[in-house]
Design a protein that fits this description.
The protein is an alpha+beta fold. It is 25% helix and 27% strand. The protein is built from 20 helices and 46 strands. The strands form twelve sheets. Strands 20, 21, 24, 25, 26, 27, 30, 31, 32 and 33 form a ten-stranded mixed sheet that branches. Helix 6 runs antiparallel to helix 7. The longest helix is centred in the middle third of the chain and has 22 residues. The protein is globular. It starts with a strand and ends with a helix.
């Protein structure tokens, strides 16, 4: 029996508005029935129209009715027929309304202040409208070059913030569509907007080079469509005749600088009866297109966890979580009282660490009117912060009067992960928080310093993890429209930033490849075939740029690259100086993009294009293997990223070569004593590359490493988001000296996708998770793992847990899913919908023998307690010594530990020997497993 059935049109579940006249429909059934299958679906509209779609299709099913007219609203339901012919109950109703305005019907002019006195000046605009007879419906369309809060009679018309967000303005502007019928009873109403410059007037660029690239002043356009009950229609559109005034309260506003709000004792602007000057038309008048992705909203509020007094005597609020948003203050005090809020992600020497923010002063100023309880929340800005320093609070500060308001694009959360390993659990939460902070209107690198830009590399690296944690299909599809537009302006070169505020572009591997990777990820995870088809031309143009840069289907070694950005071995001021040569990264990505293009072209029935791309890919493979891979299976860059690329991108295909590459990768991982050794490019690949070949112990030791550099090191340092650098904060608590040091960058968090696919075992092998390969890895060092994942096929859940010498495995397959089950010691099988459980023996690890100074370093590093004891003994004698010894040592050697410690003072060596002796015989298997490396 179907227990729940949910229908949706296009991407959004938070709104009935769609941007296309033929919205695709998707539905998800829930059932407890084993092996349930859909044989047909009947879609019915409330006006009686109905159609039956035969078969199992349920994701992005083509609209089966006549195209919707602007503002037309229908309510749809679906019911499903199972394999035996029984029909389900109908789904809940799904409202669908067309939000797009045909270009020829767009009449609103973008208007702004006639005589601004400051650059990027916040302003208000209004017009009184008279509704003289009852309305059947009222729809407000609006947009801004900047960001706006639109109000009718003083009340905001919706709950979005910073709308309409940021797009590549020269190519496309998005309009909002809002139903406002209930707000317009017959009578007079004041329609108006508060407008700030936001992304439009921000200055982009590094240091002194920063400049406003779009315009000096924001503008807004509003178009109200009224349908009266008598059937007549009226459109009221903004014109320069509307009144516009400098904002009486928001004196200045910028994303980087923050906002200044001065409350006035005069009444609100919508009640002000004085005449304001007329507005002025903006010099640009782009015609906007309807939004199809979720807007930014206030998602959550956090309370102050602790009020700190810093060594210099300042008051700093700690929200306990690095977040993105702004403060909301409720305060009473005398008129003119000025409260200043400064924001930072971390403290250094007990004070706000603002150096990493660079040009972003991130300071909000609030001036009280003295009229009772006053509320402040800066609407035109956001900050990345955990700490806020408050000065000027009138009287004793009540922290309960202050909240941190978390904002981001309002996507649906889809993935959750549970483990009893507290550090790993926190790593997962940190990745979620970094996604939240950087999926704000567009995917950004970071949310705090003077960047917050749509770096293409960061987005493509993180896309699989993002698609696991949230339904970000619409969000990323929205950004890809801008990517394609920016690419078209640069003769096929996909810029390193979208929107491209640099204004120029060059082909950078791993960054420009967002054009091939992101649509492919969305097609795989969300079954968004249309998007993939729409992307094939962009993918083709990009690989042609790459091929040209490579001088034909050979090695791509001739252009400037970011390479394996932020390899932990790179000096703080040379983020691109990685162990893996840029040519390996670039040529591997050329191969990757060619294969993704080939697959996409094949799916789009462009068979000749697919064949062309396969042929080029084969040539690149040959060149790559010839130049970079020795017959022994060593690579010219003997670094994990190089091996991971050759393996995971499928460049090496010969089984012997692959096995040799994987063996060397495992060896190199041991050599580095299981410290992470990859930058942006290798990090999402390295654990897959190990676990594909059964190197689970190595993958585990790398994942669970806590010493710097590692995934868990920041967690041990109290991180609540993912850092840009493996060591954004150094072990002594100081901020990394690099001028590029963010504490909220999601790229290195891309490991989370592997946790869901490999550790929990939900590996999608058919589009939209129609089929998964359930082959979880009971990772040494973990006792359990459990995930739930909402997919287009429905909700999968999977778990495993060790207990009493056994491992219990569970899997729930949703109605539209299937699973190939591959568990250790059991015959492979297939599982259909329903709950499944298995139990297998938990293999006890080999206990090994007692270790001493005379044990080979290769054995020391394989024993987590022994290795840790050695490091702690070195560390306690001299901070920095442990790290020095670790880096100097090749931990694969048969050399005794005593020899590796040749330069260490004898007394320290004695201490190391003593702690190893004290460890005695190896601990029982169970407790060895619980240790972190
Ligand atoms: C950003 C990165 C970005 C990089 C380009 C940095 O400033 O923060 O995340 O990808 O530049 O290499």
């Amino acid at each position: 029996m179907i227990t729940a059935l949910r229908l949706r049109a296009e991407y959004r579940t938070d709104s009935p508005w769609v941007a296309v006249a033929r919205p695709r429909l998707s539905w998800i059934a829930e059932t407890d029935d084993p092996d349930w299958a859909q044989s047909a679906a009947e879609i019915t509209l409330d006006d009686g129209r109905s159609t039956v779609v035969e078969g199992a299709d349920h994701v992005f099913v083509a609209w089966p009715f006549a195209s919707l007219a602007p503002r037309e609203e229908v309510t749809a339901r679906v019911r499903l027929r199972d394999a035996l012919g029984a029909w389900s109950e109908p789904s809940d109703p799904c409202r669908i309304r067309l939000g797009s305005v045909p270009a020829e019907d767009w009449r609103a002019r973008l208007i702004g202040l006639a005589e601004p006195t400051d650059a990027a000046q916040p302003f208000i605009v209004r017009r009184t409208i008279t509704v003289d007879r009852p309305l059947a419906s009222a729809t407000l369309y609006w947009t801004a070059l900047g960001a706006a809060t639109v109000r009718i009679d003083g009340r905001p018309i919706d709950d979005t913030v910073l709308s309409p967000g940021w797009t590549s303005y020269a190519d496309r502007l998005v309009h909002e569509s809002v139903e406002v019928t209930s707000r317009l009873a017959p009578g007079d109403h004041v329609l108006g907007a508060e407008v700030t410059g936001a992304w439009y007037t921000e200055s982009y660029g590094f240091g002194e080079e920063a400049r406003r690239v779009y315009g000096d002043q924001p503008s807004v356009a509003l178009q109200l469509h009224l349908l009266y009950e008598d059937g007549t229609e009226e459109t009221i559109a903004s014109t320069p005749e509307w009144e516009a005034a400098a904002s009486p309260e928001v004196i200045a506003s910028g994303l980087y600088e923050g906002e200044t709000i001065v409350h006035s004792a005069a009444g609100p602007w919508w009640a002000d009866s004085s005449q304001w000057p007329s507005a002025r038309e903006a010099s640009e008048q782009p015609v906007p297109v309807a939004r199809f992705s979720e807007p930014v909203r206030r998602i959550e509020e956090l309370q102050v966890v602790e009020v700190l007094t810093t060594p210099s005597g300042r008051t700093v609020l700690d929200f306990g979580q690095n977040l993105v948003g702004r403060l909301r203050l409720d305060v009473e005090g005398p008129a003119g009282t000025t409260i200043i809020a400064r924001h930072a992600e971390v403290l250094e020497d007990g004070e706000l660490a603002v150096r990493p923010l660079r040009r972003a002063t991130s300071t909000d100023t609030f001036v009280l009117s003295g009229e009772g309880r006053e509320s402040f929340e800066p609407a035109g800005t956001f900050h990345g912060f955990r700490y806020a320093e408050i000065t000027g609070w009138p009287g004793a500060m009540d922290p309960d009067r202050i909240r941190a308001v978390v904002i981001h694009s309002d996507m649906r959360r889809t993935g959750s992960f549970r483990t009893s390993h507290p550090l790993l659990q926190r790593l997962h939460e940190n990745v979620v928080w970094s996604m939240r902070g950087n999926f704000l209107a567009l995917p950004t690198d970071c949310p705090q310093r003077d960047e917050r830009l749509g770096w293409t590399g960061d987005a493509q690296i993180f896309a699989p993890t993002a698609s696991t944690l949230y339904d970000c299909n619409g969000f990323l599809a929205h950004w890809l429209v801008d990517l394609r537009a920016c690419q078209a302006r640069s003769s096929g070169v996909v810029p390193t930033l979208v929107p491209n505020v640099f204004g120029f572009a060059w082909p950078a591997a791993g960054w420009g490849d967002a054009a091939t990777v992101v649509p492919s990820v969305l097609a795989d995870r969300f079954d968004d075939d249309q998007l993939l088809h729409d992307s094939v031309d962009s993918m083709t143009a990009w690989v042609q740029v790459e091929l040209e840069a490579a001088g034909g289907a050979g090695l791509w070694e001739s252009t400037l690259q970011f390479g394996d950005w932020l390899d932990p071995a790179a000096p703080a001021d040379m983020a691109g100086a990685a162990k893996t040569s840029p040519g390996i990264v670039a040529t591997a990505y050329l191969f990757r993009s060619l294969t993704l293009l080939a697959e996409a072209a094949a799916r789009a029935d462009r068979i000749e294009d697919a064949a062309w791309a396969w042929e080029r890919a084969a040539e690149v493979r040959e060149a790559f293997l010839e130049a970079y891979v020795a017959p022994s299976g060593r690579m010219v860059s003997d670094a994990p990223t190089a091996y991971a690329l050759a393996l995971r991108f499928g460049i090496a295909v010969d089984p012997g070569t692959r096995a040799a590459l994987a063996a060397r990768l495992a060896e190199v991982t041991r050599r580095d004593a299981f410290h992470i050794s990859t930058g942006f490019i290798g990090t999402p690949l390295v654990l897959d590359a190990l676990s594909d070949f059964g190197y689970d112990a190595e993958a585990s030791a790398l994942l669970l490493q806590t010493r710097v550099p590692s995934w868990l090191y920041p967690v041990t340092m109290g991180a609540t988001t993912v850092w840009e650098r493996w060591d954004s904060m150094l072990p002594d608590g100081t901020v990394n000296p690099g001028e590029m040091t963010s504490f909220n960058h999601y790229a290195l968090g891309a490991v989370v996708d592997w946790l869901y696919r490999r550790v929990a075992g939900l590996e999608p092998i058919e589009r939209g998770y129609a089929r998964v390969r359930f082959a979880p890895i009971a990772l040494p060092g973990l006792d359990d793992a459990a995930v739930e994942l909402d997919t287009p096929a429905g909700r999968y859940s999977a778990s495993w847990r060790r207990h009493d010498g056994r491992i219990d495995w569970t899997l729930t397959v949703p109605a539209h899913g299937r699973a190939d089950v591959v568990l250790p010691g059991l015959a492979s099988t297939e599982a259909g919908s329903g709950h499944h459980a298995w139990s297998t023996a938990n293999p006890a690890p080999n206990p090994g023998s007692a270790l001493s100074l005379w044990s080979p370093v290769a054995e020391i590093v394989l024993s987590p307690p022994a290795y840790r004891a050695v490091m702690e003994a070195l560390e306690s004698s001299d901070p920095g010594l442990a790290d020095l010894v670790r880096r100097r040592t090749d931990w694969t050697l048969r050399t005794p530990l005593a020899a590796a410690l040749f330069s260490v003072p004898a007394s320290v060596v004695d201490t190391v020997g003593a702690v190893l002796d004290a460890l005695g015989p190896p601990a029982p298997a169970a407790s060895v497993q619980e240790d972190d490396h």
